[in-house]
Design brief:
The chain is 10% helix and 36% strand. It is mainly β. The strands form two sheets. The chain has a 21-stranded parallel sheet that branches. It has an eleven-stranded parallel sheet with strand order 5-8-11-14-17-20-23-25-27-29-31. It is globular, with a radius of gyration of 32 Å.
């Protein structure tokens, strides 16, 4: 019996010793897993910015939050030099602009945001740091007004980059404040980027008033004249040679010239924007695209002194829906074919839109002497409110009276107008098809077009010249001038196809 009790006592001591060792080992392991290399942030879902962390010498966990967090005080380790280590703060580097979501706050790079200081250098540093990190966000906080000069934000960058404007961003005010070394043709340029988003709850202010008043602008010189001379004014935002872009949620206003330009881009989504500039501000197109494919423009409000949306050469597969436009010059394809150039535009859809108090509604405009084609165009479910030239094709577009007749032209074909209704300004007929003498417009379709005068008597004389198509339903006003069938010279138009 005594022997059995002895064995039982030894067995219990062994179990207690093993448990003590296991607790100590677990304590050491749990603590050391939470140690981080310098520059990382506890809880950060992505790898730290290379600005604040050295290149790791071994694999870094993609998401530190997957590791178990301490549930209480860190257990002590066995006696020795490493006993009683210092407590770990919740964020070892609280001043890191990345914080916990890989956010690069421009104020952490020296931006002041007082509405007068030049914050350009801070923005360029923040861009350089964020560009090297996947899914990074450059943040302009909501309580600041930032001023920067003309800047090219260049890629390529890691994918998922977000430029988030929650405050106000603006350029220097007027030509006299513009640095002489900077380009006067553009302000913010985003170049060679893929998978990038420009968004936020803030505003991009263009400070365009003093640019509009230059005497070289239309009718801004003495006695309402337009004086000669260089007249460059900066486009506000330009995306160039980029793809997979999103622009959403912003207020953009008072651009010196175009508000937004997309050139050489592909896969672009534009939505929920508010773009506004006074009605008489010159050349202030809202959104201009050229040489750009696969574009969606949705649920936005645009009022300005030129086209709400203008579609230049080299564009295809453009879908526009839910846009409220005006006061403005309407939604335009063109101008195309300037200086005898070739222009190819295809597969453009505008639907479920409102155009109000505008000089034009839906317009196609080309210069004489051009080549190429405009095809596969659909204008559908559009409400007009006191609009001049509600439906217009103008193949004699010219900025002066000095343009001469030429034999070549951009070929306009396969254009559909469906469910276009509302009111027009009686100063001009609501329907105007002025097609080229030598290259007729063909395959025009009119259906459910009902346009009534905003005030005064109904104008029943739509204008047609060398325009061919069909009326699927009776239009108001009647359009008896649209010729049926195809022109005899249609075989010659093959040279204008793209």
């Amino acid at each position: 019996m005594d022997l059995a009790r002895g064995f039982l006592f030894v067995w219990i001591l062994a179990i207690l010793f093993l448990q003590h060792c296991s607790i100590s080992v677990n304590g050491r392991y749990h603590y050391h897993k939470k140690q981080k290399q310098k520059g990382s942030n506890q809880g950060s879902p992505v790898s730290p910015s290379p600005v604040y962390a050295p290149v790791p010498q071994q694999p870094v966990p993609s998401s530190p939050v997957d590791e178990p967090a301490p549930q209480g005080p860190v257990p002590s380790t066995p006696a020795g030099p490493s006993s009683n280590p210092p407590s770990i703060p919740s964020n070892p580097y609280p001043d890191d602009p990345e914080k916990s979501d890989c956010i690069f706050d421009v104020t952490s790079y020296g931006a002041v945001g007082d509405g007068s200081s030049d914050d350009t250098a801070a923005f360029r540093q923040a861009w350089k740091a964020a560009c090297a990190v996947e899914s990074a966000t450059i943040l302009l906080p909501s309580d600041k007004v930032f001023v920067i000069t003309s800047t090219i934000f260049s890629g390529p960058c890691k994918p998922g980059l977000v430029f988030q404007v929650d405050g106000v961003l603006m350029p220097p005010e007027g030509p006299d404040s513009w640095p002489k070394a900077d380009s006067r043709k553009q302000w913010l340029v985003f170049y060679r980027l893929d998978d990038m988003k420009l968004t936020g709850n803030g505003m991009i202010e263009g400070n365009g008033q003093k640019w509009w008043e230059l005497p070289c602008k239309p009718h801004r010189g003495p006695n309402g004249k337009t004086l000669p001379g260089p007249c460059d004014s900066p486009a506000m935002i330009r995306f160039f040679m980029s793809s997979n872009l999103v622009v959403s949620g912003l207020r953009i206003q008072n651009s010196p010239q175009f508000h937004m330009k997309f050139d050489g881009c592909e896969e672009v989504l534009i939505e929920k924007l508010s773009i506004s500039t006074p009605k008489l501000s010159p050349n202030t197109d809202g959104i201009h695209i050229e040489n750009t494919k696969s574009v969606g423009i949705y649920n936005s409000m645009i009022s300005n002194g030129d086209d709400c949306i203008s579609i230049g050469p080299g564009c295809s597969n453009v879908d526009i829906e839910g846009v409220t436009c005006g006061p403005s010059h309407g939604i335009s394809i063109g101008s195309l074919g300037v200086h005898n150039s070739q222009a190819c535009v295809s597969n453009i859809t505008v639907r479920n839109a409102v155009i109000r108090e505008s000089d034009n509604g839906v317009r196609i405009k080309t210069w004489q002497g051009g080549s190429g084609s405009v095809s596969g165009i659909s204008f559908e479910n559009i409400q007009m409110e006191n609009v001049r030239n509600c439906i217009i094709v103008d193949q004699y577009y010219c900025l002066s009276k000095a343009c001469l007749n030429q034999t070549s032209a951009v070929y306009v074909t396969d254009v559909k107008y469906r469910n276009i209704k509302g009111t027009y300004d009686v100063r001009t007929p609501p329907i105007h098809f002025a097609c080229s003498d030598t290259v007729a417009c063909t395959n025009i379709t009119m259906a459910d077009v009902e346009l009534l005068p905003q005030e005064g008597e109904l104008l029943d004389d739509p204008f047609c010249w060398n325009a061919y198509g069909i009326e699927e339903t009776i239009t108001i006003p009647p359009i008896g001038c649209l010729q049926e069938g195809m022109p005899q010279t249609i075989t010659e138009t093959s040279q204008y196809s793209c």
